[in-house]
Amino acid sequence: MTSVVVVDDQEMVRAGLRVMLESRGVTVAGEAADGRAGIEAVRRLGPDVCLMDIRMPVLDGIEATRLLVAEGTPTRVLVLTTYDLDELVHAALRHGAAGFLLKTTPAARLVEGVDTVARGEALLAPELTRRLIEQHVARPAPGSADRLTTGLTRREREVLVLVGEGRSNDEIAATLFVSRATVKSHVNRVFAKLGITSRVQAVVLCYEHGLVVPGKRTAP
Length: 220
Description:
Elements (H helix, E strand, L loop, with lengths): L2 E5 L3 H12 L4 E6 L2 H11 L3 E5 L7 H10 L5 E6 L5 H8 L4 E4 L4 H12 L7 H11 L7 H6 L4 H11 L4 H8 L3 H15 L4 H10 L12
Parallel strand pairs: 1-2, 1-3, 3-4, 4-5
Helix pairs in contact: 2-3, 3-4, 8-10, 8-11, 9-10
């Protein structure tokens, strides 16, 4: 059974999320009202997923996400936000959040999102994610893509671009005519070389460095 820690400074929001999740079989292991307390709850309880608000006192959700990801916690951070194009959401994704959902997300979709990131997958709604990133990414500097991919093989660079476009491992395998296991191996090596932990971070990096261009997509 999936376990969750809910971090939000509004008690009514936490209570509502608890009811929504527990009524659909998700265990709410704990709650916290700020980012610092949220980090402590995640360390103490070890949930599968942390539902993280962004704007909170003491420590905001962006810094809390950065600290959790940096210390290598297996708990996946799923950001909850009010505004889908908020630059703060972009910052949280850049720091390693596994995805984001609007606070108005229906209960069934919320549980689906929690289960998705608990399985180790990224919660990528490609169109929404691309709109968010494109809104907040400046034009990359000349040579930025080459600097990012220094140390990657040609195949690893191809895989990174496809991940950046929001493709699944199955889609990448079909595009490159290789097995899913081969794609997974390439993805793991790329992430290790770039020092990132999630597909969402890969998407952000690809846009920021010009590997993926808004409005363009690699031919299947």
